[in-house]
Amino acid sequence: MVEFLGALGAKNIEWKESKDSFVSGIANFSMNNSEDQQEFIWEIDEKDVPGENVFNLAKFIKERELLSIDMITITRGELYRIFTAEFGVTKEYFLEALESLENIEVSMIDDGEKTDSFFIHE
Q: Does any domain span residue 121?
């Protein structure tokens, strides 16, 4: 979760609750502005949490600054080429990680209600 929200610009996460079916907290997008934060909840059963490959890809995307808001800024082919060159992983590893990453949807909470979602897409 840290890698996913971090790729989207979160500088820090304050965890509120963690259960078998969800995690919630507040993502801070600026360390100097307490108004630049967003409460969130990720509803997912613990058994369905993506594997390390997904979070490795999210971390890679963040470190390479390959997102514009929530959209990957390079083609799938280019992302595949540079990710696999750096990590020496298979095409299957990459495709599984990318598909899983694109299936993550974390709900934004405003005034106790779900209002929007965080996600990453091509």
A: no
Domain that holds residue 8: 2-110
Q: Nearest CA to 28 among 18, 38, 19?
A: 38
116 located within any domain? no
Distance, in Å, from the CA atom of 42 to the CA atom of 79, rounded to the nearest integer, reads 26
On whether residue 52 sits in a domain, the answer given is yes
Q: How many structural domains are present in the chain?
A: 1
DSSP string, 98-113: HHHHHH--EEEEETTE
**Interval 9-41: pLDDT, tens:** 999 999 999 998 999 999 999 878 777 899 999
| Inter-residue contact 44 to 107 (CB < 8 Å) | no
pTM of the shown model: 0.88
